[in-house]
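Inverse folding, one chain.
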């Protein structure tokens, strides 16, 4: 009899735990079916353009860019400000410059090739390009 009572208590406790921890009430189930749960309708916070530019600045400052580029003066390559003046601040140019950061390039600013940085991700290279393109005060156009 004690074993039966103990089994009933354990079973009841297990059932209560399962239903109280994550179990949905009938009203909650209807909300979930209708798609009105708060966690389903809340949009994820996307970083603003300014946040992406700040992240790009941090990535640029932490990289070897300063070996060849200066903020305002030509060293081996053009200054970052000169790059910003040459290219409009558009998604197409962000993608173009990110590709040059990753793959390197030559011929646009002279004969000295830009070193490739294949270890930089596309997303990080785009943030870096956004930072550089922002240096002439231009706002993103698209």
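Residues assigned per position:
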């Amino acid at each position: 009899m004690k074993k039966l009572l103990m089994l009933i208590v354990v079973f009841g406790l297990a059932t209560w735990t399962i239903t109280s921890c994550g179990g949905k009430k009938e009203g909650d189930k209807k909300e979930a079916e209708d798609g009105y749960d708060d966690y389903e309708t809340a949009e994820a916070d996307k970083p603003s353009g300014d946040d992406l530019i700040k992240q790009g600045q941090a990535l640029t400052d932490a990289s070897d860019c300063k070996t060849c580029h200066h903020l305002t003066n030509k060293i081996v390559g053009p200054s970052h400000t000169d790059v910003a003046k040459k290219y409009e601040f558009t998604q197409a140019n962000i993608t173009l410059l990110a590709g040059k950061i990753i793959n390197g390039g030559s011929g646009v600013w002279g004969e000295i090739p830009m070193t490739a940085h294949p270890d930089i991700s596309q997303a990080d290279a785009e943030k870096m390009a956004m930072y550089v393109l922002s240096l002439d005060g231009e706002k993103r156009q698209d």
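The radius of gyration is 28 Å. The CA atoms of residues 28 and 34 lie 10 Å apart.
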